[in-house]
Design brief:
By secondary structure, the protein is α+β, with helices and mostly antiparallel strands. The protein has 18 helices and 23 strands. The chain starts with a helix and ends with a helix.
Amino acid sequence: MKKLLLLFTLTILLASCSSAEKFNQQITSLHSVESLQNDVDKTYTQLKRNHPNLHLYISEERLDFKFDSLKKTINKPLTTYAFYTKLGPVIGSIRQGHISLFAPKKHLNRKDYKAFLKKKFTFNDLDFDYLEDRLLVTNTRSKDSFLIGSEVVKIEDEEISDLIAKIKRQITSDGYNTTLQDRVLGKRFAAYYNSDKYFIDSLQVTFKKEDSLFQKVFNRVNKEEIKKDTIQNDSIKKEVVVKLTKEQRKEKKQKAKIKRKHNVLYGYNKTRDEYIRDIDFIGKDSSVAYMKIRGFMGGDIKKFYKEVFKEIDSVKAENLVIDLRDNGGGSLAEIAELYSYLADEPFQFLKAGEVNSRVPFLKMAMSNTSSTGLKFFVGVFSPIIVVHNWLKTKKEDGKLYYKFKQSKLAEPKENNFKGDVYVLINGHSFSASSVLSNQLQANKRAVFVGEETGGAYNSTVAGIFKVYELPETKLKIRIGLMELETPHKQEPGGYGVKPDHVILPTINDRRENKDPELNWILNTIESKKE
């Protein structure tokens, strides 16, 4: 029995190594012109077959021309990544921010993958912001705090301006919006830079600070070594440990339990040491409720917002600030729940979603990127899924619409907030953040401060997605299957929610740790009191 188990394990390992090697060879080798053109056709076919409103911002004739032109420019063999740089701008011309194209990463065998997990790339500890055409280091999760406030000038031998121009071609917003590129570029710079680099072991970066240039090399380091250093440094600061009594141990355990529950409810991110959702009370007399939401990530949202608005009510706060800056979106259920505490009359949050299939969830699950297990599960329960989808869809004016909870008329909560609401937005306020902002602005329920959202005002194609892998190059394309249309419209379409007061941070604001948008709100509230 042991020999059979050993033989089975060895077979799995060998298959894994062989599969990884074969995949890596495919994405690094040159692909024939015919196979590349076939991947272009496959891409366009998937878009036409799945996207519910492909020609919202580009005509069918224009998009046909772009795909035909792309095929004509492919007249020699290309690698996967070279093809990615050609296909990306054509996808971007559709102007639908939720359509994403992903370049594949090299696969690792199990042994190499385990070794990879034990290390971290120190360059990824840096946070950036792109302001005034410069890439600024705004934070670091390592010991290199001296880098904060410095400007990136060059990475290896490549000028940062050339890198920025290349990365911007990979970023698409909804419609004709122009604010999303800069904000996303800053927040996700490391990810975009690494997209074609596979596994970097070291990286030389040139920085500028106070007119001085200096270089730093970032390496892939062992996590255990970092942990040991931290423990040693902490042990120097630690005082003599006092033995706790039984009652003290019990109290400590109870506090730890409460802390764990709090972390789950507020969505604690250990890597970044911050919460996805948070509430604080700020201002001169701590009477302004400040709610920071970094993403609508689901969880026990009913309990969270019930507790938060109960706390706001208990301190009798008359002003609420909702910070949606750099909130890329997420759960529709969550934004509808939040809005129900801000609404002052019955509301319809969204219209029924337009789809081009009566079984959108089946289409999503049976993609060529879905696992065998998921396909088997969906296959077994497909009769139930099909019936459910058919009951949820209806046909009107030759179009299919999917009904969901957020498209029904809803009532405000009994303890809804009745004070003044201010919302902070920027170009990285996208998807669900824009949908929530649309409701608040259309119903004159909030004052908006910052810059235009990256997500469109009128609609967004999201909800559920199909991820399809191109057969030759192994690029993956994510396609939204449902157009979520808001009850409120603005003309012309294709733009985001625009602020009532445009305020943009500067590089000096970031260096001095100032928040001009939030400060404007706090000063406005104080002036009203006076």
